[in-house]
Write a structure and sequence with these properties.
Layout lengths: L18 E8 L16 H25 L3 E8 L4 H5 L7 E4 L5 H14 L4 E5 L8 H12 L5 E5 L5 E6 L17 H11 L4 E3 L9 H11 L15 H14 L16
Parallel strand pairs: 1-2, 1-4, 2-3, 5-7
Antiparallel strand pairs: 4-6, 5-6
Helix pairs in contact: 1-7
C-alpha cells in the first residue's frame, strides 16, 4: 500500500489543526536492527521483532485515530528510499515524512519543525521500542495536546529516557545539551524545559525493549501464565506476542527467556 509522503513547508489541508502522532523509526534490516537483542535473538529475529514493534505501535495509533479524529499517524522514517518496504508495516491511514540527517537531537527537532510546517497544530514524537505502550497514555497525550497551551507532555522510560514527547510548538532548547542514549535524557529534558519556562506534564513511566532484561520484562507481560513474577500490563501487542509465541512453542524458554524472576523489570 502506498502512503502519502508529507512535504516539508507545504501545509496540507488534510492535517490542519490535527495532531501528528509520529513514530521515530528506522526501516528494519537484518544485522542493523535491535542489535542489543542479539543474542539471545538472531540478527534475523531481531529485525523481525523490530517489524512487529512497529506494527503494534502503529496499530495502537491507528485505533486511536478512529476513536479521535484529532490524531493522525505518521511514520518519521530513515533511510530515504525504503518507503515501499516500510509501507508494508504501516496501517493504511498513516502518512510518512523523512527524518533529517544528523544526530538524534537534530532528528527530533527536525521532525517537530517539519511536521508543524506541514500544517499540524500539535506533534507527538513516539519511540519505536515500546510495543505494549498503554493505550491510555496515547489517549491522554492527545487530550492534553488538544488544549492550545504551550507546554510539554513527556512520558519517561524506566531506563532514564522517554518514550513520548508532545508539543504545541517547536522548542529548540528541549533538544540541546542532552546526553542522548544515556540514563540522563529524561532528567536533562526536564531541566531544559525549566530553563525555557515551558510547563511540563509527565505521564506514567513505561519501558523500552532494547536488551535482555527488558525482553524478559516483555515476555513476562505478554505471557503471564509462564512468568515467575507479575508485572503491569499494557497494550496487547498482538504481532509481537505472536512472533515470540512461535519461538516459545518451538524451543521453550531456554534461549530467549532463561532468566529468573530476579531479573524481571517492573514499572
Amino acid at each position: 500500500m502506498k502512503h502519502e509522503i508529507l512535504t516539508v513547508a507545504r501545509r496540507n489541508p488534510a492535517v490542519t489543526d490535527r495532531c501528528a502522532m509520529g513514530i521515530m523509526m528506522k526501516t528494519p534490516r537484518n544485522g542493523f536492527s535491535k542489535t542489543r537483542l542479539s543474542p539471545p535473538l538472531s540478527s534475523e529475529e531481531a529485525a523481525n521483532i523490530s517489524r512487529c514493534f512497529l506494527k503494534d505501535i502503529g496499530a495502537a495509533i491507528e485505533a486511536l485515530s478512529h476513536e479521535d479524529p484529532f490524531v493522525v499517524g505518521v511514520a518519521i522514517y530513515t533511510p530515504v528510499g525504503t518507503e515501499a518496504t516500510l509501507g508494508e508495516l504501516l496501517p493504511p491511514g498513516f502518512k510518512m515524512i523523512a527524518q533529517r540527517e544528523g544526530g538524534f537531537g537534530t532528528r527530533l527537532l527536525g521532525a517537530t519543525e517539519d511536521l508543524f510546517s506541514a500544517g499540524f497544530s500539535a506533534v507527538c514524537l513516539i519511540g519505536s521500542d515500546s510495543p505494549t505502550l498503554p493505550f491510555h497514555s496515547l489517549r491522554d497525550v492527545s487530550t492534553f495536546l488538544k488544549e492550545p497551551i504551550d507546554r510539554m507532555v513527556i512520558g519517561p522510560c524506566r531506563d532514564g529516557g522517554y518514550y513520548l514527547l508532545g508539543l504545541r510548538h517547536a522548542h529548540m532548547g528541549l533538544f540541546e545539551n542532552i546526553t542522548w542514549s544515556t540514563d540522563r535524557v529524561y532528567g536533562e529534558t526536564i531541566e531544559r524545559s525549566k530553563e525555557i519556562n515551558l510547563p511540563a506534564i509527565t505521564l506514567p513511566a513505561w519501558y523500552d525493549v532494547d536488551d535482555q532484561p527488558s525482553l524478559n520484562r516483555l515476555l513476562s507481560e505478554l505471557f503471564p501464565e509462564r512468568a515467575t513474577k507479575t508485572v503491569p500490563q499494557g497494550s496487547p501487542a498482538p504481532y509481537t506476542k505472536e512472533f515470540l509465541h512461535q519461538i516459545l512453542t518451538r524451543e521453550g524458554t531456554s534461549r530467549i527467556w532463561p532468566w529468573t524472576s530476579a531479573s524481571v523489570q517492573t514499572v
